[in-house]
Amino acid sequence: MRILPPLLLAFLMAGSATGGELPRDVADFLARRDRCDHFRGEDSVDPARAADIRRALVANCRGTDAELARLKRRHARDPAIRARLQAYDPRVE
């Protein structure tokens, strides 16, 4: 269950134990998953726009369930990173 939107949570935690800097793998994942979540919430009756949305979903969502699980394992000892990752649904694919 998501309590805070991921971008809001990231903003609120900017001064966390990680000093505001995230490991590259985590930062890349957060950006990609935020794009994924954006397009998951979008719909269109226009066929061209609907096709664009489908392509964006594939490009941004595919593989993120496994990546989220991997990052949670890899950074399990960092409470600030763990909190950021917990904000995301574990199954979106």
Notes on the structure:
The protein is mainly α and 93 residues long. It has a domain at 24-86. The protein is 62% helix and 0% strand. The chain has five helices and no strands. The protein has helices spanning 6-12, 24-40, 47-61, 64-74, 79-86. Helix 2 (24-40) runs antiparallel to helix 3 (47-61). The two termini are 16 Å apart. Residues 1-19 form the signal peptide. Keywords: Signal.
Number of strands: 0
Number of helices: 5
- Indicate the percent of residues in helices: 55-70%
Overall pLDDT: 86
Summarize the helix and strand pattern as letters. HHHHH
Largest sheet: none
> Structural class of the secondary structure composition?
mainly alpha
How many whole angstroms does the radius of gyration measure? Answer: 14 Å
Global geometry: elongated
**What is the CA–CA distance across the termini?**
16 Å
Which stretches of 5+ consecutive residues score pLDDT under 50?
Answer: 12-18
Please state roughly what percent of the residues sit in beta strands, choosing from under 5%, 5-15%, 15-25%, 25-35%, 35-45% or over 45%.
Answer: under 5%
